[in-house]
Amino acid sequence: MQAHLGTATTILLTAGLLAGCATAGRTFASGSSSAPDTPPAASPPAAPDAAEPPAPAAAPATKPSVLPVEAPPYAGSSYADVGCGPAPCAPICGLPCENGCGGWHVRAGVGYAFSLGEDPADPCVYFGADIGYTFCGTKCGCWGIDAFYRTQSAQFDRDPGGEDGGDFHFVGVKLTYERTIQGRWYGWAGAGPEYFWTSDYLDDDSGIGGFAEVGIGYMLSRSVRLRAGVEVHLMNTDVGRQSVADDGESRWLWLVAPVVGLELTF
What we know:
This protein is mainly beta. It contains one helix and eight strands.
């Protein structure tokens, strides 16, 4: 009896094991038989968009226009800030002093002088020289200051039938003014007090007089100029009286001299 129960138990365990194996086999077969994942189908290429109009061509780069710039004003109208360097343009543009360039100058001139007044002298050759400084100016002109020397040999008629000859000498200081007329041409003027004396006359004299000048000039270069004008001296003197009775009696005498000259600036 016990032998039959053991056999039955063994059969039941064996059947249970077989049933479990069969279930596992089906599960495995079902899992392994599933189709592998397939990659998604590639999307068809997108249709090209409608042709776009070409972009307009870029405008060629243009150079910015540059307006001419005038030379900087030296100090508004006084030209004081820049100082006295080289002139910003050639002399044909005007006097260097009008462009802010003052400087020293020397002048020499020659003329033919005649006198006006009571008992005038005979006309004769007349010489002179200046040394001075012209200040930085404006387009309205330039001021300067000069020391000058002038001399003339002159003869006076002397009664009865004779002559009284000698020399006049003048030294003085004058205030001057210059301004461009056009191109290389310019005008000039000056005036100031002077001291005069005479030598070699029968009755020499000395005293204080007045001097004035006016004329035009032409600039050959920035440093060399030609000048032409008229110079006038006014004095009260008793030299050269014609009548012996008038000796020692002073009278007003004008000395007028058309002159030409040369100026050097530096």
